[in-house]
Specification:
There is one protein chain. By secondary structure, this protein is mainly alpha-helical. It has 22 helices and nine strands. It is 41% helix and 5% strand. The chain has a three-stranded mixed beta sheet, with helices on one face. A two-stranded antiparallel sheet has the order 1-2. Strands 3-5 form a two-stranded antiparallel sheet. Strand 7, helix 14 and strand 8 form a beta-alpha-beta unit. Helix 6 packs antiparallel against helix 7. It starts with a helix and ends in an 11-residue tail after the last helix. 46% of the residues are buried.
Length: 549
């Protein structure tokens, strides 16, 4: 059978010269033509099955809505009375949010195929048995990651562990407890055969330890937790941290475009400027921004900021978390939008390099505000939402002259240098960083009752940001959540973190402006997402929907 026909059957994509990379070393799929699966897949080419699994991660980590919206840190950019199903929990149905299910199961299918072929179809010589074990370990680790992504959102999953060879409709869901047991089994089986320092872009032993730490941590809050889950999570987090000291480089250096492969990054989904155009379709830089090209002096095709791709913005609460001495403020957000072209017809003529919009960290007094509004627009911290502030008489930059109605400091740490005038970019997506592992350790130790160790890990992260050692003298789960917000905003799955800590309902009702105005969150329903209607329709009735949908 031609591989091109086999692809649809096993959900495995082989396209020529797909590279995902932001450096000189990367995972690469090779070009093959006019081949069959029988003569292609042998011990010398089997790794292409594993590479195909990594390709699926791109779509998974471009799927933002369920991770960020409907939380304390992110909301929509519309008027306060505008509705968003995902953010406000209003009208949440089985037609909402199904892409996370579909994309993660696509990865599971590819992992199952790789495991089956490695174990049962390929003839391995003795000299390549290590490669066999390594390939299976990667597939199992990535399958465990995909199941973990899903169980946090949907609860108990269909634990299909075999290569798909027929069309079926009789799938049934396992319990949440059984799903966690399978995730743990996959990761624990994988870790011994993963490499400490693999090729860039592949899952390392420490990356798997980070994931497994979070799995045990999350299970530790559940009704089916083991008494040792928090302790186990802390031990795994310590192993994932290893000897690396995050204070060896600044937060800004971690996110420097020319430093995308650095020792803090445990795992990243790779993109890059080489290979096919599919290597340059990462939209991460464009998700927490307004349409800056609407401002005079900011050219749509030459702007260094990019083009907004999502109806998302940070909540006003997010900006209040940055202390005056927190260096992450400057590295995370743009407090000034600069012109990249001359605009003589602006309210006050603009020259490239001039400030067009300024977002002060603290509110300006009336005198300074008026002085600055003669030169550019200024939006005070209480104006970081959709709206039209009252014009200040006698200044050049009247708010009514600004064509952009939603104004807020856009994200900076995901800035790209290779993107088109719509949304696509080439920057790698950081999935796990050691700073995040410290915060997992802090949470795990807190759960285990070891506040001294929790404080140590929390203060290491804080010290890198502020330069102050041992800044926290005590620790609560809210301290950890706030530090996660400052350190990992837009990276970690904020919705899942708030869910596991039991803080989701409390925090959205305090800090998400649209939820406060008209949200309909119901903890008996919305702590799980609906199973996609398309999946239910394809089943024979054996696939059950989550309660309330």
């Amino acid at each position: 059978m031609k591989l091109s026909r086999k692809i649809k059957h096993i959900g495995f994509i082989l396209i020529g010269m797909i590279t995902f990379n932001a450096c000189d070393s990367y995972i690469e799929e090779d070009i093959f033509s006019d081949i069959t699966s029988e003569n292609f897949i042998d011990e010398n080419t089997a790794d292409q099955l594993v590479v195909g699994i990594y390709v699926s991660l791109r779509d998974i980590y471009k799927d933002y809505n369920l991770k960020f919206l409907g939380t304390d840190l992110f909301t929509i950019k519309g008027e306060l009375n505008s509705f968003s199903t995902t953010n406000d929990y209003f009208g949440f149905t089985s037609g909402t949010g199904g892409s996370a299910w579909i994309r993660n199961y696509d990865l599971v299918s590819k992992a199952n195929t790789a495991i089956n072929r490695y174990e049962n179809q390929i003839n391995w010589s003795d000299s390549k048995l290590g490669e066999k074990a390594y390939g299976i370990a990667q597939a199992r680790a990535l399958r465990g990651l995909a199941f973990f992504n899903m169980v946090q959102q949907y609860g108990g999953m269909v634990l299909e562990l075999d290569e798909p060879t027929t069309i079926r409709s009789d799938y049934t869901r396992s319990t949440e407890e059984e799903t966690y047991a399978q995730i743990i089994a996959d990761l624990e089986a994988a870790i011994p055969d993963l490499l400490d320092n693999p090729e860039t872009g592949r899952f390392s032993k420490r990356a798997a330890q980070h994931v497994l730490a979070e799995v045990y941590l999350t299970r530790g809050y559940s009704s089916f937790a083991s008494a040792t889950d928090f302790d186990t999570a802390a031990t795994l987090a310590e192993a994932a941290i290893g000897s690396y000291d995050i204070r060896s480089q600044t937060f800004a250096e971690v996110f420097s475009y020319d430093n995308q492969v650095n020792d803090e990054i445990l795992f990243a989904v790779q993109w890059g400027s080489g290979g096919l155009t599919t290597d340059q379709v990462n939209t991460k830089h464009s998700i927490f921004m307004n349409q800056v090209a609407n401002y005079p002096g900011v050219n749509r095709t030459t702007t260094p900021y990019g083009f907004s791709s999502a109806n998302m913005m940070p909540t006003p609460y997010f900006y209040t978390l940055f202390a005056d001495n927190d260096s992450r403020d400057d590295a995370t957000i743009h407090r000034a939008i600069l012109a990249d072209v001359d605009e003589p017809t602006a309210p006050d003529p603009i020259v490239a390099g001039d400030t067009v919009v300024y977002y002060p960290k603290a509110a300006l007094d009336a005198t300074e505000l008026a002085e600055r509004l003669d030169r550019y627009w200024v939006y005070q911290p209480d104006q970081y939402l959709f709206g039209l502030p009252d014009d200040i008489p006698g200044v050049n930059y009247l708010y009514s002259l600004n064509p952009e109605r939603t104004n807020f400091p856009i994200f900076k740490k995901f800035d790209d240098e290779i993107f088109n005038e719509t949304t696509d970019g080439a920057r790698d997506t950081f999935v796990f960083r050691v700073a995040g592992t410290h915060l997992l350790a802090a949470e795990a130790y807190l759960g285990a009752g070891n506040t001294a160790s929790a404080l140590m890990h929390l203060n290491i992260v804080r010290e890198r940001a502020t330069g102050v050692a041992n800044e926290y003298a005590s620790v609560t789960i809210d301290d950890i959540l706030n530090e996660r917000a400052l350190e990992l905003a837009g990276e970690a799955n904020r919705w899942a973190v708030l869910k596991r800590t039991g803080k989701l309902e409390e925090r959205i009702n305090l800090y998400n402006p649209h939820v406060i105005d008209h949200g309909t969150f119901d903890s008996s329903i919305h702590l799980l997402r609906p199973i996609p209607s398309s999946e239910l329709e394809l089943s024979d009735g054996s696939l059950l929907q989550n309660p309330g949908y």
